[in-house]
Amino acid sequence: MAESPPVVIWEREVRSLLNYSELIQRLEWALGKFSKRDSAEVIQPVRTTVPLQKHNGFFGVMPCYMENDGILCTKLVNFYNRPTGSTLPSTQAIVMLLDPEYGNVKAVMNGEVITVMRTAAVSAISAKLLMRTDSEVLTILGTGKQATSHYDVFTEIFKFKEVRVWSRSKERGVTFAGTLNGPVTVCESVEEAVKGADVIVTVTRSTEPVLFGQWVKPGAHIAAVGACRPDWRELDDTLMKQSVVYVDSREGAMTESGDVVLSGVQVFAEIGDLINGTKPACKEKTTVFKSLGLGVEDAASAQLVYDKWKSNVM
Ligand SMILES: NC(=O)C1=CN([C@@H]2O[C@H](COP(=O)(O)OP(=O)(O)OC[C@H]3O[C@@H](n4cnc5c(N)ncnc54)[C@H](O)[C@@H]3O)[C@@H](O)[C@H]2O)C=CC1
Ligand SMILES: O=C([O-])C1=[NH+]CCC1
């Protein structure tokens, strides 16, 4: 009912309502709609970001309206470049689902779970579309929250023979390995971790390149998830220039991605173009999927949480 106060669906409940197979389906659907650039399907501007200079962070506002589907949503997200050793969280978020006709907020949800799960699910979609079918080795660079969700979804939906992980500190790598639901090889250096890898996920808070083209096997697929500011990098120019570059949003990449903007590469396609069949998947080439995170991904995920929550309470 329009007058009811918003329901609050928090961390544990959001986690229990989401699973990767449903999330992947919904996100493929949403990314395909986004790339049609049809305003009745999706209106989603590039995220507005307000610098929190004193705290080395950014406040992001991520609205999205899907008129044909009656979904109106916004995420509020704070993300920080915390100094090493800081115990403060690097991402905090809430997601609000609104009634587009009445204008009220229907639900307020924990946004951290949605953010870690939908980001990992979108990277998995990129790998489904762009990695070679004989891929055997997955490498994850970084050992934070996104590293965990990426490990979970990649090992759930693909069958890699080996998963490797690298952290700047070996000790953190070993601790991280102990938290996972499966085996992983902890590597001492990025070069060792990515040697011969078929799929590489970069989920660091680095602002300088950590992954260099000279180390990457030709034909590998890279899902680059960190470096979400125009002056931040995770990948070097060589890697960007030797790869076919896919993004979640062209406008987002040209505004927010240091790896795209500073290397001067051309974006080849959006992931939604692949889903819609309007651009090809160049699997035989080295491919980079530069992920920045979209409001439409949060909207589709939040609607899924809400639909499942409603079917549980009715
Ligand atoms: N593309 C997207 O949709 C999203 C991207 N992100 C970004 O993904 C990245 C990872 O996020 P979380 O896992 O939540 O962060 P986190 O703080 O949990 O983990 C970050 C990891 O990066 C490592 N790290 C920090 N500085 C580094 C450096 N200079 N070189 C190498 N490693 C370094 C840390 O040790 C840690 O392992 C962040 O940059 C975040 O802003 C977050 C949410 C969505
Ligand atoms: O999509 C998202 O929520 C974010 N992308 C970069 C930091 C947070």
UniProtKB/TrEMBL annotation:
Entry-linked Pfam families: OCD_Mu_crystall
Assembly behavior: Homodimer. Binds the thyroid hormone triiodothyronine (T3); T3 binding inhibits enzymatic activity.
EC number annotated for this UniProt entry: 1.5.1.1, 1.5.1.25
Domain of life: Eukaryota
Family classification: Belongs to the ornithine cyclodeaminase/mu-crystallin family.
Protein name: Ketimine reductase mu-crystallin
Organism: Mugilogobius chulae (yellowstripe goby)
GO terms of biological process kind: thyroid hormone metabolic process
Catalytic reaction list: (3R)-1,4-thiomorpholine-3-carboxylate + NADP(+) = 3,4-dehydrothiomorpholine-3-carboxylate + NADPH + 2 H(+); L-proline + NADP(+) = 1-pyrroline-2-carboxylate + NADPH + H(+); L-proline + NAD(+) = 1-pyrroline-2-carboxylate + NADH + H(+); (S)-cystathionine ketimine + NADH + 2 H(+) = (3R,5S)-2,3,5,6,7-pentahydro-1,4-thiazepine-3,5-dicarboxylate + NAD(+)
Any Gene Ontology CC annotation: cytoplasm
GO molecular function: pyrroline-2-carboxylate reductase activity; thiomorpholine-carboxylate dehydrogenase activity; thyroid hormone binding
